[in-house]
């Protein structure tokens, strides 16, 4: 899974330092939003030809990693 996370990059000068896919101006946030709104991986890849399927998997795994390390508190 480290291979997937290696696709996630950060640059404080691009999109205010948000996590990006392989240094492209495509954020993890945007990919997650598209998936949440019902776009398929195939549709995303068609709309963003610089992306690869593993980039979408990397965005999902990155989000999973953040949630998996969360501390659950009583609300």
Topology of this structure?
Blueprint: H1 2-5, E1 8-9, E2 20-21, H2 28-36, H3 41-47, H4 53-68
Antiparallel strand pairs: 1-2
Helix pairs in contact: 2-4
In short:
The protein contains 4 helices and 2 strands; from the N terminus they run αββααα. It has 75 residues and is mostly helical.
Keywords for this structure?
mainly alpha, Arc Repressor Mutant, subunit A
Structure description:
This protein is mainly alpha-helical. The protein has a single domain (2-68), classed as Orthogonal Bundle (Arc Repressor Mutant, subunit A). Helices cover 48% and strands 5% of the residues. The protein has 4 helices and 2 strands; from the N terminus they run H-E-E-H-H-H. The protein has helices at residues 2-5, 28-36, 41-47, 53-68, and strands spanning 8-9, 20-21. The protein has a two-stranded antiparallel ribbon with strand order 1-2. The protein is globular, with a radius of gyration of 13 Å. The termini are far apart. The relative contact order is 0.18. The model has no long low-confidence stretch (mean pLDDT 94).
